[in-house]
Design a protein that fits this description.
Blueprint: E1 5-9, H1 13-22, E2 28-33, H2 58-67, H3 71-77, E3 81-83, H4 85-88, E4 89-93, E5 96-97, E6 107-109, H5 112-124, E7 129-133, E8 137-143, E9 151-157, E10 160-163, E11 166-169, H6 177-183, E12 191-194, E13 198-206, E14 221-224, E15 240-246, E16 250-258, H7 266-275, H8 279-287, E17 289-290, E18 295-297, E19 302-305, E20 317-319, E21 325-326, H9 334-351, H10 357-382, H11 396-417, H12 421-431, H13 437-441, H14 444-458
Helix pairs in contact: 1-5, 1-9, 2-9, 7-8, 9-10, 11-12, 11-14
The structure holds flavin-adenine dinucleotide.
Amino acid sequence: METTTAVVLGGSVAGLCAAGVLAKHFDEVIVLERDELPPDAEHRRGVPQSKHPHFLLNSGRRAIGEIFPGFEDALIAAGGMHLMPSMDAAYCENDGWAPRKSGSMTMVYSSRVLIERVLRDKVRELPAIEIREGVTVTGLRSSGGGTARGRVEGVESSDGYLAADLVVDALGRGSSVIDWLSADGWSAPPEKTLDAKVTYTSRWYDLPPADRRPESWWWKHLVITPTQDTGDHPDEHEFLSNFFPIEGGRAIVCMGSWGVQMPRKADTFEDAVDRVRATAFGRAARACTPTSEVHLTRATGNKWRRFDLLDVPPVGLVCVGDSICAFNPFYAQGMSSAARSALILEEMLRGRDALDLAFFREFLARQKQSLDVPWMLAMARDQAYDFATGSEVAPAWRRRLAARLSWPIFNAINAASREDAYVEQTFAQVFNLDRSLREMAADPRFWFGIVRYKVRQKLGRTVVPGGFDDRQDPPGTDFTGYTRPAGRADLVGA
Ligand SMILES: Cc1cc2nc3c(=O)[nH]c(=O)nc-3n(C[C@H](O)[C@H](O)[C@H](O)COP(=O)(O)OP(=O)(O)OC[C@H]3O[C@@H](n4cnc5c(N)ncnc54)[C@H](O)[C@@H]3O)c2cc1C
């Protein structure tokens, strides 16, 4: 019997997840990766974004766990942390610090380089997969470009030519696959783009030993959302700031913004940290020891290559991860979307023998449905900015509406989540890509919870206090199961 071969282009998160799936369905799976892959959790040239925090959403964590059983245990054993954000993170929202409270969502925290190292370890346990490092992919070979009989037949690389029954493009944002296909007569897929000029700036720190932190430092993760105050304030009040815990007693201090110039030198970074509106952020960073230079990234635009819209998609080729759809990283959707695409491939391969046009059409339709969920979430906020560019720029009236409504709705959801478990769980599902924004928007129980909270707020009858002063340390009081003291009227901002 003939040997079946799948070739995966790129050995990062998307490529490794795809390889894990393909190992069950092909005799050999060859991953071609330009970098030499480090044995441990280290940065490498091909993934510069690893210097910034990477939040693994729960749908992605589950998808990776399905592809690589034991992934989460291995990540925790290697130093990753299992945390409950509503208890372990301090959130400074529009009205100040949110109350600390038990919630439905737990998350796994670690550095991006550790996630990748654990994935590589898992891949290396699978004998069908061979990772060829230091190999640059330079082209595709295909026949019958753009016709129903056309197909991708193999891959050109610095290592020579490899014939393949299936090629998976996981080359990231910079993938040249479309250029290579066009040279062979395939139509380029339409691209949806929206660049909301998001910039990330990050620096790595060692935390002080636990016994040298003040008692008020109960939190593991600090998040400060941008102010919605329209008056005069320093640029730093517009930042989304994260003190993001990672393995090894370290944290990544990261500030991000839509459209604001961000610091890229150590001294300007430290100054900016001190000007973030919740002063605990600067105090925490000052108590830590910096261990890296400042890393700045601007390549953050949303970009979706719509292969599903082609009359004749290339048979023999699947694109996963950033190569097909890259997102503004604020919403932490990239790795999870990549893993979810790999799982769709798994489901499709399990049910089919022939890798024919019908197979690829169906894969693209199902992948489109899956990508719609994170894409809509990214658009909801990014379309509000007048300086955003790309094919998805909204008409002026919609930009104004989004600018006016998106933060107030977000704030109302966060506030209502404090005392309405249904609202809290629904929003956690949407954030984790387990439910779509559309489903949430059409859910009467969800909106009932928001309106009920708003009414209670107006009447001074909310239960859990919130909006604690952002110039103070975040309060560590656990408000789980808190009941409203009798006779007390207005508890908001108590
Ligand atoms: C600042 C920032 C923060 C982010 N934060 C998050 C987050 O919180 N959560 C989240 O889920 N996602 C986040 N992301 C997105 C996430 O990094 C990507 O979605 C994820 O890495 C999936 O990437 P990928 O495997 O498709 O591509 P990449 O990780 O970009 O990998 C592409 C791979 O292809 C290799 N390669 C490239 N060209 C060639 C070639 N010609 N030949 C051979 N090999 C090649 C590269 O070396 C690399 O290994 C963030 C992104 C950025 C920029």
